[in-house]
């Protein structure tokens, strides 16, 4: 696009970006964000990302921490479960679909997130992800706090056991990068380090809560002035054995003994019977998942009443049957993480061109052949690996024609509407606006942007 056109829409006053024409910004956003994501000029890309994000804040879509809402939930559970949505592909279109449904249903309690592993295979660094989400908010006219979260900022067990320092440093670096990109919600996942060989539950959890407390302290040291980043912890590695009250107490007591850097955790992820992406059967269909909702209720209740947290977090839930989702607010679950189900809607849509999907699958079979596990059928291999088809082929996905993307987004929008209803987050805009007061963090307007708007 002709960047010089932006001079009619945006200006710089006293070193700050000002929005002159909100309708004009919305009109050019599709073109602007495409240019930002796919330009080959690295410096120009950073400038475009900064420009879009600062323009979004001026338009009223402000990156924010969900901390204050979660503190309110810790005092008095309001009866809804916050959906945290991971977007792996078609990110801009999918985020627009989410914001359309959020506007329609007056949803404010909603998180956009991306995990450490997803950042890699979807080729979306934190700055790109937060920019694209905020661009979608502008395009759809969403105004208010936008919660962007680092999900599963995880320490890889084998790397940590081989040498703790580089693995810990990597996660610290990722945290710093994410906060600079205005992720004001970070989930620390050191549950991978739990050592079940130790004699007591507290000692088993010790590597987990020690690392979480140290990384939590680091977050508090580098967070922007006026913002308390929402920090999540985790006690049960997803896909492992179900969590129990003794583990919850051991972890949270241990965390509190070490952590002395201000506000502590806002929530706790637990394991209750799910696996990320679901369990795929040899024919490619998904096995039915049984969540232990009694455990979820017990642990959420304990987390609130004994520790003042918002409650417990459920991971790996997007492939559950629709009729199960009402159980999350009923059991007092504060947050539920959703990812693979949306990916499945995209891949399995009736309007997805067969030739395009075949090309993606051929790419996967060639590039990731070494990841095929012994005994896996082709259907199981494709299902478990197709999430990696989004990143390397990102531009091809974005370039799908409107008559393909449109119906797929309608399917996703319908799914988001169903989930918002079941999780009872409709009409949560008021409680969010009442509890969360976003702080606008001004980013430096560099010389490239100044030249564009001159």
Could you provide a short overview of the structure?
It is built from 19 helices and eleven strands.
What do you see in this structure?
The chain has 454 residues and is α/β, with parallel strands linked by helices. The chain has two domains: 3-60 and 443-453, no CATH class; 65-346 and 399-435, Alpha-Beta Barrel (TIM Barrel). It is built from 19 helices and eleven strands. An eight-stranded parallel barrel has the order 4-5-6-7-8-9-10-11, surrounded by six helices. Helix 2 crosses helix 6 (126-139), helix 4 (91-105) crosses helix 6 (126-139) and helix 9 crosses helix 10. The model has no long low-confidence stretch (mean pLDDT 93).
Task: Tell me what portion of residues adopts beta-strand conformation.
Answer: 5-15%
The ordered H/E elements are: EEHHEHEHEHHEHHEHEHEHEHEHHHHHHH
Low-confidence stretches: none
CATH class of the largest domain: Alpha Beta
- The number of helical runs is 19
CATH architecture of the largest domain: Alpha-Beta Barrel
Say how many strands there are: 11
Structural class of the helices, strands and pairings? alpha/beta
Shape: globular
Question: How many domain regions?
Answer: 2
CATH superfamily of the largest domain: Aldolase class I
């Amino acid at each position: 696009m002709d960047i010089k056109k932006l001079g009619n829409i945006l200006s710089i006053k006293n070193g700050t970006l000002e929005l002159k024409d909100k309708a004009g910004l919305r009109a050019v956003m599709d073109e602007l964000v495409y240019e930002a994501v796919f330009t080959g000029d690295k410096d120009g890309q950073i400038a475009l990302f900064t420009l879009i994000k600062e323009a979004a804040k001026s338009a009223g879509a402000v990156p924010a921490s969900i901390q204050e809402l979660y503190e309110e939930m810790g005092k008095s559970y309001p009866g809804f479960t916050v959906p945290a949505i991971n977007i792996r592909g078609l990110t801009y279109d999918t985020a627009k679909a989410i914001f359309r449904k959020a506007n329609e249903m007056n949803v404010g309690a909603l998180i956009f997130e991306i995990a450490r592993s997803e950042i890699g295979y979807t080729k979306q660094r934190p700055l790109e992800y937060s920019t694209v989400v905020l661009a979608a908010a502008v395009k759809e006219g969403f105004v208010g706090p936008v919660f962007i979260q680092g999900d599963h900022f995880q320490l890889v067990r084998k790397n940590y056991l081989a040498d703790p320092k580089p693995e810990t440093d990597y996660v610290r670096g990722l945290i710093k990068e994410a906060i600079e990109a205005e992720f004001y919600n970070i989930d620390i996942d050191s549950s991978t380090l739990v050592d079940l060989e130790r004699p007591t539950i507290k000692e088993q959890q010790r590597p987990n809560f020690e690392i979480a407390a140290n990384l939590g302290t680091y977050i508090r040291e580098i967070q922007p002035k006026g913002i308390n980043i929402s920090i999540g912890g985790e006690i049960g590695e997803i896909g492992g054995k179900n969590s129990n009250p003794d583990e919850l107490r051991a972890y949270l007591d241990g965390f509190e003994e070490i952590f002395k850097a201000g506000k502590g955790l806002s929530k706790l992820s637990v394991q209750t019977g799910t696996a990320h992406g679901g369990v795929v059967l040899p024919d490619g269909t998904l096995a039915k998942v049984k969540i232990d909702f009694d455990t979820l209720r017990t642990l959420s209740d304990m987390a609130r009443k004994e520790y003042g947290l918002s409650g417990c977090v459920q991971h790996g839930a997007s492939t559950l049957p629709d009729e199960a989702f009402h159980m999350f607010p009923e059991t007092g679950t504060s947050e539920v993480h959703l990812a693979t189900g949306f990916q499945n809607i995209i891949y399995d849509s009736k309007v997805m061109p067969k030739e395009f999907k075949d090309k993606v699958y051929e790419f996967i079979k060639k590039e990731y052949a070494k990841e095929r596990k012994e005994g896996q059928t082709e259907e199981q291999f494709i299902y478990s690996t197709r999430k990696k088809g989004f990143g390397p082929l990102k531009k091809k996905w974005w370039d799908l024609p409107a008559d393909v993307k449109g119906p797929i987004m309608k399917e996703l929008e319908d799914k988001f509407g169903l989930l918002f209803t079941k999780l009872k987050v409709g009409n949560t805009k008021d409680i969010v606006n009442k509890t969360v007061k976003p702080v606008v963090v001004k980013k430096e307007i560099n010389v490239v942007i100044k030249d564009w708007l001159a």
